[in-house]
Amino acid sequence: MLMIEAPSPNWDAREQGRIDMIVLHYTGMPSGAEALARLRDPVAKVSAHFLLEEDGRLFRLVAETERAWHAGVSYWQGQERLNDVSIGIEIVNPGHEFGYRPFPDVQMRRLRTLLDDLVARFHIRPDRVLAHSDIAPDRKEDPGELFDWQVLARAGIGLWPEVGAGDGARGDVADLLAAIGYRRPHDPVSLRTALVAFQRHWHPYAVDGQADESTLERLAAVADAVSRVACGEPR
């Protein structure tokens, strides 16, 4: 795959587990050039494995076999220290602070090509292709509600079950969030935070942290799909 080599000094050796997760970010800076400079700045102490520009140019900053510093304090499906087991992809977009906008088609096409390769090579389960906001909902909101997870799912990447797929059994909201992978909420604030993260990824039509009927339906469908994938059943 054609890409531009732009090595970052911000990496070290992986310490635990095999690579089994991909985390998608947006850069959240005014320009891609500024984001690339920051990810290569040794003072910043942040990086990712790849940076994808809006025009489709792809930069490799850190080898997939090494640990990039992109996830930070994070949690998913009982696991922490997710830099050890994940590949991080920074997608150029100014983000909520600098003029959040839809991700261009050319950028999404290039992302699908990259993800096809990574998912195949590292055998990434669909419930392990995630947003930064999924694994750090109290700190992050990227890549946000304008990111088109559905178009990736149609290409066989990630998880986007239809409502009504499977048994769709309802349950306690906190239980459903934990079954999907989020850290179990223990109070109203953490519950709303996790629900907002869920909605950004799987129900972007109402990112308000409220467990309304449509959000509950989506929660049940995603929890059911995660359970099926974990058991090796078709999603």
From TrEMBL:
<keyword id="KW-0961">Cell wall biogenesis/degradation</keyword>
<dbReference type="GO" id="GO:0019867">
    <property type="term" value="C:outer membrane"/>
</dbReference>
<dbReference type="InterPro" id="IPR036505">
    <property type="entry name" value="Amidase/PGRP_sf"/>
</dbReference>
<dbReference type="InterPro" id="IPR051206">
    <property type="entry name" value="NAMLAA_amidase_2"/>
</dbReference>
<dbReference type="GO" id="GO:0009254">
    <property type="term" value="P:peptidoglycan turnover"/>
</dbReference>
<feature type="domain" description="N-acetylmuramoyl-L-alanine amidase">
    <location>
        <begin position="8"/>
        <end position="144"/>
    </location>
</feature>
<dbReference type="GO" id="GO:0008745">
    <property type="term" value="F:N-acetylmuramoyl-L-alanine amidase activity"/>
</dbReference>
<dbReference type="Pfam" id="PF01510">
    <property type="entry name" value="Amidase_2"/>
</dbReference>
<dbReference type="InterPro" id="IPR002502">
    <property type="entry name" value="Amidase_domain"/>
</dbReference>
<protein>
    <recommendedName>
        <fullName>N-acetylmuramoyl-L-alanine amidase</fullName>
        <ecNumber>3.5.1.28</ecNumber>
    </recommendedName>
</protein>
<dbReference type="InterPro" id="IPR036366">
    <property type="entry name" value="PGBDSf"/>
</dbReference>
<comment type="similarity">
    <text>Belongs to the N-acetylmuramoyl-L-alanine amidase 2 family.</text>
</comment>
<dbReference type="InterPro" id="IPR036365">
    <property type="entry name" value="PGBD-like_sf"/>
</dbReference>
<dbReference type="GO" id="GO:0071555">
    <property type="term" value="P:cell wall organization"/>
</dbReference>
<dbReference type="GO" id="GO:0009253">
    <property type="term" value="P:peptidoglycan catabolic process"/>
</dbReference>
<keyword id="KW-0378">Hydrolase</keyword>
